């Protein structure tokens, strides 16, 4: 049996983490974290994580800032942004610079996220 793809989802809203985990745990191994700083520590420990999805707006640091920090150390992982807001210039630049592969809009489309994960 093939191992499940391991995903880290970072969001400062607990309900979003729970919903994501319930929906995607059938197909993927899903780790979640409320705090982007602690999420960096998870990346240090869980080296098999291949996909990182982050909320954009969080109190500690933005999703883009979190991904920049993570990608400095783990450039081999695939990064995505999930946001409840319209695409910003910061997100557009992150897409253009290949910091992130894609951005997803909340409420998220399960099929869109699954296709992006499989393509990555």
TrEMBL record:
Top-level lineage group: Bacteria
Record-level GO BP terms: phosphorelay signal transduction system
Modification sites for 4-aspartylphosphate: 55
Alphabetized Pfam families for the sequence: Response_reg
Coiled coil (residue ranges): none
Keywords linked to the UniProt accession: Phosphoprotein
Residues in Response regulatory domain copies: 6-120
Alphabetized InterPro entries for the sequence: Bact_response_regulator (IPR050595), CheY-like_superfamily (IPR011006), Sig_transdc_resp-reg_receiver (IPR001789)
Protein name: Response regulator
Organism name: Mariniphaga sediminis
């Amino acid at each position: 049996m093939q191992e499940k793809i391991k995903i880290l989802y970072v969001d400062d809203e607990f309900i979003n983490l729970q919903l994501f985990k319930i929906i995607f745990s059938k197909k993927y191994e899903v780790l979640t974290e409320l705090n982007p700083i602690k999420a960096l520590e998870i990346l240090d420990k869980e080296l098999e994580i291949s996909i990182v999805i982050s909320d954009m707006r969080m109190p500690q640091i933005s999703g883009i800032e979190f991904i920049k920090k993570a990608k400095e150390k783990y450039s081999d992982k695939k990064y995505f942004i999930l946001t409840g807001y319209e695409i910003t210039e910061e997100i557009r630049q992150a897409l253009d610079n290949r910091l992130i592969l894609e951005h997803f809009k909340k409420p998220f489309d399960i099929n869109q996220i699954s296709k992006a994960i499989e393509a990555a």
